Amino acid sequence: MAYIPLGVAFGVLLTASGVNWYWAPLSTLLIYAGSIEFLAVGFMVAGLPLYQVAFTSLIVNFRHIFYGLSFPIGRLRGRVRKAYGVFALTDETYGITSAGPGARLTGRQITVVQVVSHVWWFLGALLGALLGQVVPESVKGFEFALTAMFLTLAVNAVRSSRSAALVLLALGAGAVGYAVDRYVVGESFLVVSLLLYVALISATYRKGEAAAE
What we know:
Blueprint: H1 3-16, H2 23-30, H3 34-46, H4 50-60, H5 63-70, H6 79-87, H7 91-97, H8 107-131, H9 145-161, H10 164-183, H11 189-212
Helix pairs in contact: 1-3, 1-8, 2-8, 3-4, 10-11
């Protein structure tokens, strides 16, 4: 259900930026990556060259490489379902299918979760695009919707895991990534932070296994 307010925010933001309304539902069908879709509005308005769009998309969605390490794609039967499973792998569906009770979902149930999520996102964007044509230009803040969602997901993840160590590792990786981005290589924050965080939690996991033995 959270896809509805997010989709509405995206649709309103797109139309308020001067882009034709039909690009909102069209992008949800062809791109289906919330963060990039929000950024794509700025790309279209600014007329950025394709190589910049491709590089930015890679950096922003770099985290999906790590999602693939534990996404239960083996439960999906058939090439079509597997291909759609990869295409429709979002932060939310990954969180549902890879941890807690959702980790026990069958392949068919995983596909249903992804299809339902995709439909909600499409309907939200379509509704937002239609509403965006009547929303006054003075109304601001729609671009913050995605950030608010990620903050909520992070808070819930911390509450459920109750592991201070993971939070500290994430903060440390983020601090290093910020320093590298600012003083060494620009636009590298996400890549450096994610790689370092994966390395740190992998080392912690191995240390825990060694201690258990």
